[in-house]
# Entry
Amino acid sequence: MEIEIQDFQKDVIEESFKIPVLVDFWADWCGPCRILGPVLEKLAQKYSDKWKLIKINTEEFPEIAAKYGVISIPNVKLFHKGKVINEFVGALPEKMLEDWLRKSIPSKYSDMIEKAKLLLSNGKESDAKVILEEVHKGDITNSEAKILLSKILIFENPKEALRLIESSNTYDELVDLANSISFFAELFEKLQTPEKLPEHQVKSIYIEAIKQLIKKNFSQSLEKFIEVIREYKQYDDEGARKACIAIFKYLGEDNEITLNYRREFGRALYI
# Structure
């Protein structure tokens, strides 16, 4: 496996349009480089289908190091479609390095996932579902595809949505959405056994809020949950408060419904 650079334009820039390229800027005199290098090479063999490793000795190619702002080494930069999309400096332990790679390496299905996201934002869930199912079939380890697919399935097949979440490796950008979907599943389960809910005058309002949620009537659901908060915030272990937050996270902070109800939600909490 040839990993030392021969031609930067060809080996890194052009190649990164075919597969993500991880560039390790190093030097013979650098102790941490000698620690990191073998780990990178080991992982490059392990994940050869997902990314490619290129090593650049900064003593031999100072002009390339200078062009990309390499000040201290080891410096590892991830190239995708001709551009640096992420990087780190220093020698990471193997486990931390694998976590970084898992979060940073774009999937070969990234364009399909972005298209599915656009369809979801435009309310075209059935079209997005077809794409996400295709991605999931091609890469069953793709956590982003699993979470986005569960975002659709939670209303029609909560058990399958939960299975997808539980089998995924959620990271920062996905945690809030995954938690929201999981909480929706908890709420929907309560509809199956309403007799287990605490008896209180807000119980019927709370149940109606969940019914509106399962119908994807988010505005009506939020109105009911906020009404419960105003009447008795502690009901069902503050279930209404948690439900509102879950809906906001599910829809996204920039969603019109989220923006419309955030202030009302805040006021209800501090009455």
Observations:
- The longest strand covers residues 83-89.
- The two ends are 66 Å apart (CA to CA).
- DSSP finds 13 helices and four strands in the chain.
